[in-house]
Amino acid sequence: MEQLEQIGIQTLVIPGNHDINNPYAYKITDEGITKAENITAEDFVSIYEEYGYGEAIERDKNSLSYAAEISEGLWVLMFDTCIYQNRFSEEGTLSYETKEWALEIAKKAKKQEKQLLCVSHHNMLQHNKYFDTYYTVSNSERFVGELVEQGVRLNLSGHMHIMNIVQSKVDKEESFYDVALESLAVWPNLYGQLDINKTKEMCYTTHQIEYPGNSYQYLYLSSWQKACEELSEYPVTEQEKNSMAAFLTRINEDYFSGRLKEKEFYTEQKAYTLWKEKAEDSFFAIYMEEILNTKCLDNTWLLLEN
Question: pTM to 2 decimals?
Answer without folding.
Answer: 0.93
